[in-house]
Structure formats: C-alpha cells, structure tokens
Design a protein that fits this description.
Length: about 300
C-alpha cells in the first residue's frame, strides 16, 4: 500500500512562513542594530572625517572644518615618516610572524606528543603570557631591556659585551621578542585544539605502516591542522598592522621610538594634535592595507591547503 502526500498550496506555504520570517527578524534585529551602531556607523564616520580638514581664518581665529576631498590621503601618503612606519611594520611582520607561528606549532606538536608529561601544566604555562595585559608586559620587558637593570647585560658584561636592547638598531626586534612572548602561547592553543580533533586511528594506522613520530607530525598532523595555522597567520597579520601598545609603552624607556614609529602611533599622534582629518585618513589607509593583506594571504594559502 502506498500513500501520497498532497502538495501544499502556495498561499498556505506563505501563511505558514510569515510567522517564521517575523520570528527570524525578531531575533536578528538586536544584532543588526548593534552591528550598525557600533561597527558600520563608526567606520562611515571615520571615512567622512577623512574628507575634511581644519582651517583657521587667522592665527587665533576660530577653527573651521572644510571639505578637502582626498587631500588628507595625499598628505598621509606623502608623509615620509608615515610611509617609513608602514615599511618598518612590514619588515616586522615578515620576520616576527613566521618565527612566532613556528614556535607555536612546535610547542603544539610537543604537547600533543604522547612522550610529553605534565601537558596541562605546560599548556597553562605557555598560555599565561597572553593573560598579561600588553601594557604590563611592555613595562616588564622594558625593565629587562634597560642596560642598567637587564640580566642579559649582567651576563654578557663580564665577557666585554654590553648591548643596548633599547637602541635604535635593535628596538624593533626587542619589540618583536615581546610580541612573540605574548602571543605564541595563544596561537599554540588554537593549533593544539585542532590537533586534539584528529582521530587517533590515523596515528595507529601510520605506526603500523612504520611511520616515526616525526613523520606522523610532518605528514599527518601539520597538513590536517593547516587551516588552523592559516587562521593564526591571518590574526597575526591583522595584529601586526595594528601594533600600538607595545611600542607606545616602550617609548617611555627608549628614545628610539618616535611619534610615527608605527602607522597606528602616527595616526594617534595626529588625532591627539586635533588634526582629525589626517588621523582619520591614516586610519583608513591602515584598515584598507589590513583587509587587502589578510584577503590576499587567505586566498593564496587556501589554494595550497585545499590543493
């Protein structure tokens, strides 16, 4: 015996879907309102401010905000200090991000290894630096870098070496060491979580085929968690272009960090000087560069991961 289901008329489907549609919009509305108020409106306001400049009719005359078009963008891109800050951050990210992700990957693989004991302790120990506020971490490392207080200098001074880790030649890499110390454990935790999702059957099958621990790590674990590694890389690229707290705090102990050392510090300096249009234009340039680099990197690596 077979049964047939009568088709539901279109009018009945519309009547049935109307309450569901209203319920969906009811749940979505709070999010959409918050998204528009706290995300889209600020972005639109920054773009709007970047098109305006400040003019005075005389030295002590009232301030007038006038439309200047793209003049602020031309001024930002023509500012040598701002452009050098972008280049400095590009060099920083080109060296620091791969080193940090390599350290995080090695730590995650070690914690996932069956040969390592006290994994909970080491997992927490590696993650603790991320829980330290960035300003506190920068102050702490500033004291460690200070030549008169640094334990590194106390170790190397008897050998005739007295390096200044706050000098202009090495301050960028001193900050890189600080950022690596802070975020390596955070990235490690993302990779370690991805490793925990791999079925143990794969490892047993590989061992039956004679694979060593190193071969399992390189040929099975790393390819499977590649999407997680790409994700941490994108996060790191975004964080690099937004680097602000660490160099800003380190500027209190090092004269090598200027008010335009990084693009975000340069934008902050302009806004502090009430040059809101130029500061907004710099912020938009940083945002566009962040989006473009993140999308390009994500697309390039996605092809390799999926390939």
């Amino acid at each position: 015996m077979t049964t047939t289901t009568a088709p539901i008329p279109a009018a009945a489907r519309r009547r049935g879907s109307a309450p569901s549609t209203r319920a969906a919009w009811g749940f979505l509305t709070p999010f959409l309102v918050g998204f528009a108020v706290f995300y889209l409106v600020p972005i639109g306001y920054v773009i709007y401010k970047s098109l305006y400049g400040v003019r005075r009719s005389s030295t002590f005359g009232p301030i007038q905000e006038v439309f200047v078009g793209l003049a602020n963008y031309r001024s930002a891109l023509g500012d040598g200090d701002f452009v050098r800050g972008i280049g400095r951050i590009a060099l920083f990210g080109f060296v620091q991000v791969p080193v940090m992700l390599l350290i995080a990957l090695v730590l995650a693989l070690l914690l996932d290894s069956a040969r390592i004991r006290f994994t909970r302790f080491f997992r927490l120990a590696f993650f603790v630096p991320y829980a330290v506020p960035g300003a506190i971490a920068a102050i702490m490392w500033g004291f460690l870098y200070a030549p008169s207080l640094s334990p590194f200098n106390q170790l190397t001074r008897p050998l005739g070496a007295d390096p200044d880790l706050l000098s202009a030649d090495v301050i960028l890499w001193s900050i890189a060491n600080l950022v690596t110390w802070t975020y390596a454990g955070y990235n490690m935790l993302i990779m370690y979580s991805a490793l925990q999702a791999i079925p143990a059957d794969l490892y047993e099958a590989a061992r039956i085929d004679g694979a060593s621990d190193l071969q399992i790590a390189w040929r099975i674990k790393v390819p499977i968690i590649a999407p997680a590694v790409v994700l941490t890389a994108v996060f790191s690229i975004i964080g690099t272009l937004q680097l602000f707290t660490e160099p800003q705090v380190m500027a209190t102990v090092s004269t090598a960090i200027s008010s335009s050392y990084t693009p975000t510090i340069a934008a902050y300096a302009q806004i502090s000087a009430q040059n809101y249009g130029l500061g907004a234009a710099m912020s938009v340039i940083i945002t566009v560069a962040t989006v473009v680099l993140s999308v390009v990197f994500f697309r390039l690596t996605r092809k390799r991961v999926e390939g």
